[in-house]
Amino acid sequence: MQEPKPVRYLDRSTAPHVTTLILLAGISAMAMNIFLPSLPGMALHFEVDYSVMQLSVATYLSMSAVLQILIGPISDKIGRRPVILWGVILFCLATLGCLLAPNATVFLIFRALQAVVAVAMVLSRAVVRDMYTQDRAASMIGYVTMGMAVVPMIAPAIGGILEDAFGWQANFGMLLLCGVLVLVIAWRDLGETGTPSENSIGQQFREYPELLRSQRFWGYCLASAFGSGAFFAYLGGAPFVGTQVFGLTPSQLGLYFAAPSIGYFLGNWATGVLAARHGVNRMVLSGTIISVIGMGLSLIVSYSGFSGPITFFGFMSLVGVGNGMVIANATAGMLSVRPHLAGTASGLGGAIMIGGGAGLSALAGALLKPGRGEFPLVWIMFVTSVLAVLAILYVIRRERQLGF
């Protein structure tokens, strides 16, 4: 695969600028976590239990998983650009629905519809894979997600401050404004990078078995799913732990919540610098081991009775480092198993990853009850991190069998 031609910013006749890809991935990340410090307050506003409002995480992830199954084949058939643009347009409309929701049921419906913005994150990775070879793609995905990681670093803190000052609705007002801005930039800059498939969309879906029969594809998917599953469990459980166990205010929780994102930034920086030199498998293995170490230390500290917000959220930063190394590299790996199905692989792999995350997020919300402390959440994160190590070890073993 040849290196892409020079890029001209806001000129869609050329390939998209890296900042556009960062913004597309970033708006998806912002939609996921900016309002999390507001969940307890939203439960009071809508007069429902916290567990009901926590479903706004699980339903978003579940819908995202379903959509990603469709995104890949459709984008392989008609191109990346139209799917991304329509996804952002529909996201803006769904965000307006969340902002105006009169009750929790209506809010959860529009919150699920917001998940259409997943097209931006999924296809920004596919665009990179269109432009680069595997290890170079892993490096570039690392740089894109490193830039994207700035968003979840600051979004919860901004969300907590906005809620303290104006109420939870301000978070969705911010999302709407950012969505419109990203739409305008993508419209001007996002050139088409995919080569439309000659197969019909139905035929594209029938190519899923080709991916599902690949043991390496499954290995990369499971490494990514279990590695990121620890983070998704954190999304579902950390607001409860922060407010109910450690007594943090929304603005304080927003600041502490950024700890994994700081680690994620560093992990993606490491990917950008090292992936092309050391290969995706070694990067994924290193990332999963770092996550296991972080959660193991967190369990030791918690059972020793020394846990507090600094130690709890501090160890979460190691999970962020691990995720930064795992997700970009495992994604590049799964997209390279069958390069002609890159969009399909990105969608299917993302669906497996996000679907597992939705389940773990809901599990964390169900297990966290007053009096149980942070232990259920930390145990979920530790076990999933160990499973991620086993998944990538299987990939390494399989590639040795195949002589790669």
Q: Helix/strand-derived class?
A: mainly alpha
Annotated CATH topology: Growth Hormone, Chain: A
Give the integer mean of the pLDDT values: 83
- Biggest sheet architecture: none
Secondary-structure element order, N to C: HHHHHHHHHHHHHHHHHH
The percent range for strand residues is under 5%
Number of domains: 1
Question: Helical region count?
Answer: 18
Tell me the distance between the termini: 19 Å
Task: Bin the helical content.
Answer: over 70%
Contiguous runs where pLDDT drops below 50 for at least 5 residues: none
Give the C-alpha Rg.
Answer: 20 Å
CATH superfamily, by name, is MFS general substrate transporter like domains
Account of the protein in words:
This protein has one domain: MFS general substrate transporter like domains (Growth Hormone, Chain: A, Up-down Bundle), CATH 1.20.1250.20. Helices cover 81% and strands 0% of the residues. The protein contains 18 helices and no strands. It is globular, with a radius of gyration of 20 Å. It starts with 17 loop residues before the first helix and ends with a helix.
